[in-house]
Every structure is written in C-alpha cells, then in structure tokens.
C-alpha cells in the first residue's frame, strides 16, 4: 500500500535490477533469465547506493532480478546503506531457495536487512517451486516479524488460477498477506506463446503515464524512465527521452533531477504519449500507448513543441493537478489500472492505516 501510494510521485523511488541470472526456468519469464545470463560488478550498484544522502535519497529502493537473492550480500549492503540515509527497501524474489528445507544463512541475512519482502507466485512459478514451499517460507518470515507480500500473475480476469491462488493465500494467512495481482504481458519468454488480442481503437485523449515516474536501473547500470523490458533490453531502440543516465557515472541526485526536469518525461507523465504525438506530431498518435512513446523522440516537431508546452504556466498548473489527482486516487486506483481490476482490493490485506513513513526525504 505504501509503495503504490507513491507510485505516481516523480522520483519517489528507484527500481534496481541487480542481476539477470536466475536458477528457475519459468515459461513466462519477462527477463528470459538463466543461470548464465548477464551480471555486472556489485561495486557499480553499491557505489550508486552510496550516493544517497540524508538530504537527497529515494523514498523507496526496490531490488529485483532475475533473482536478486542470488546476490544476497549485495542486497544486504544496499539495504543497509539506503536505510542509513532514510530510504525504505524492498526485494522481490522467485524463492528458488524454498525448494530446500532451510533458508540459506546469507539469503536470510539479506531478507532481514530489507524492510519488505515480496515473492512472485503464479502457475509458472509453481512448476518450479511448490506452493507449499512458498507458504512455508512466508510463515517463517511472518513469525519473525517480517513484512511480506505476494506478486501474482494471471492470464487475465477470468483465469481460474487467480481465483484459486488468491483464495488459498487468504485462507492460509488469514487475510494478513497483501497481494498485487497483475496480468501476464507478452514479453520475454511469454512472447513466444502468449498474445493479447488487440483492443478496439480508442479516441486520442490525455492519458497520464504514472509508470514514467520512477527511474529504473537495468542489469547493465543503464537508467531509463520506463521499466518496459523491451526498452531495457534494447529490443526496441532506446528512445532518447527515456534515457536518464548510467549509475557508473551518475549519482542519485543527478538521476532524480533528470527524472523531474526532463521536458519529455514531464509531458509524458502529464498528457501521455498518444496525446503528445497527436497534437504535436501531426496526428501520429494512433499506434498503441507504449509503441507511440517509443517513436516520440523521432518526430522532429515534438521535442521543441514539448519544450514550449511545458514552459507555459498553464501546463505547470495542469502538471501539479495531475500529479495530485494520481496520488489522491490512491493505491487501489493504481492496482485497478495496472493490475487485474477484480483483485485490486487484495493489496490492502493486512494494512493498517498509518502516518506517512518516517523515512520520507
């Protein structure tokens, strides 16, 4: 709930892919991870975390992979450094280690170091790690006082697996484990066998992009303003407006400044790519939402038009109103928009309303 509350706040968090490596072989893997997949030096990621300061740090630091807990010492070291500056930390895992009776000591130390632990669970993960093993690990962590959640993936709102697994989790944990339920995307390995039917054409209207709010650090250290795996993997040419830098040479303050001040990023967050393309690019906003965003930097008239647009006092006022509206809509709105709507309320399980996190910075 806390993460989703700030999901649309520009620069509120940073998401870091620590490795593409993973010992599982899930059929839907968006990163197409294997044990011999790419992995870059730990020092590069740690150096970036060391640029957080008490005055300038992300509210949240999210770590994932591949399988982030293949690098438990790195997870622990980043978590400790981030907490010292005021950040709240989170790690997402496929629970490869749950296939054995005991959590490895190094992995447990990494989990203990973060503020929140989240596990991926779906029918594809269950082919690799039994549901009972996942439940056993979660019980152990909960009994020791760790905040946990689940990220569930399904084929769509009518997928019977989602009804089965969410019911099982609610019974097993007495409605105390929140779940974010998202639809499967046709990316990574799933692209080979899963394709969504295209929806009917919609009129071009302003559609703010909340997913352009948090910078994403890829496995190679490149930072983008979008977590779309095709963008991060170079399967589509990296749009110039989505490139924010590289953690080998840029610190957090620089990345955050670019996130907040880039005219194109501000415009995408406020109006959405199709609206910009249609209004400033000669009516080229008829493609899909993300596909249109990929082409924005190529349209010669859009960049100067965007700079002029975001420089207007009226646009600044609209930008502030949109940001406030997205935050005021709350976590449930985000879960409905980007997850499976019928399961959106599950993100609130076990949540106790509280004052804003003390780590705000």
Protein topology:
Layout lengths: L1 H4 L7 E5 L24 H8 L10 E5 L7 H14 L2 E6 L11 H9 L2 E6 L1 H4 L4 H13 L3 E8 L5 H13 L6 E5 L32 E2 L4 E3 L4 H5 L9 E4 L5 H10 L1 H9 L1 H8 L8 H7 L6 H9 L2 H26 L23
Parallel strand pairs: 1-2, 1-7, 2-3, 3-4, 4-5, 5-6
Antiparallel strand pairs: 7-8, 8-9
Helix pairs in contact: 2-3, 3-4, 10-13, 10-14
Q: Could you characterize the architecture of this molecule?
A:
The protein is an alpha/beta fold. It folds into 2 domains: 2-196 and 330-348, Aldolase class I (TIM Barrel, Alpha-Beta Barrel); 261-322, no CATH class. It is built from 14 helices and 9 strands. It has helices at residues 2-5, 42-49, 72-85, 105-113, 123-126, 131-143, 160-172, 229-233, 252-261, 263-271, 273-280, 289-295, 302-310, 313-338, and strands at 13-17, 60-64, 88-93, 116-121, 147-154, 179-183, 216-217, 222-224, 243-246. It has a 9-stranded mixed sheet. The chain is globular, with a radius of gyration of 20 Å. 42% of the residues are buried.
């Amino acid at each position: 709930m806390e993460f989703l509350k700030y999901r649309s706040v520009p620069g509120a968090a940073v998401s870091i892919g620590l490795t593409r490596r993973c010992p599982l072989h899930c059929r839907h893997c968006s990163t197409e991870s294997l044990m011999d997949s790419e992995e870059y030096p730990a020092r590069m990621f740690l150096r970036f975390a060391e640029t957080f300061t008490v005055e300038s740090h992300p509210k949240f630091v999210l770590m994932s992979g591949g399988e982030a807990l293949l690098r438990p010492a790195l997870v622990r070291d980043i978590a400790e450094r981030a907490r010292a500056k005021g950040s709240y930390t989170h790690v997402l895992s496929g629970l490869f280690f749950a296939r054995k009776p005991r959590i490895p000591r190094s992995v447990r130390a990494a989990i203990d170091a973060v503020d929140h632990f989240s596990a991926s669970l779906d029918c594809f993960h269950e082919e690799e790690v039994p549901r009972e093993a996942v439940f056993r690990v979660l019980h152990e962590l909960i009994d020791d006082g760790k905040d946990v959640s689940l990220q569930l993936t399904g084929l769509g709102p009518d997928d019977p697996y989602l009804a089965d697994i969410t019911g099982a989790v609610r019974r097993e944990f007495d409605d105390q484990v929140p779940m974010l339920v998202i639809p499967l995307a046709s990316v990574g390995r799933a692209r080979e066998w899963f394709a969504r039917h295209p929806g009917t054409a919609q009129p071009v209207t302003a559609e703010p992009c909340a997913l352009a709010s948090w910078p994403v650090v890829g496995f190679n250290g490149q930072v983008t303003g979008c977590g779309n795996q095709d963008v991060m993997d170079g399967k589509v040419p990296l749009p110039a407006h989505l490139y924010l830098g590289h953690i080998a040479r840029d610190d957090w303050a620089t990345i955050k400044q670019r996130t907040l001040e880039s005219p194109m990023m501000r415009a995408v967050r406020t109006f959405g790519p199709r609206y910009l393309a249609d209004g400033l690019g000669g009516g080229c906003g008829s493609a899909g939402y993300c596909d249109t965003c990929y082409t924005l930097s190529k349209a010669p008239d859009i960049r100067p038009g965007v700079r002029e647009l975001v420089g207007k006092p009226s646009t600044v006022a609209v930008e502030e109103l949109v940001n406030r509206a997205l935050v005021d809509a709350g976590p449930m709105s985000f879960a409905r928009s980007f997850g499976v709507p019928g399961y959106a309320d599950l993100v609130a399980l076990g949540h106790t309303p509280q004052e804003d996190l003390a780590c705000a910075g």
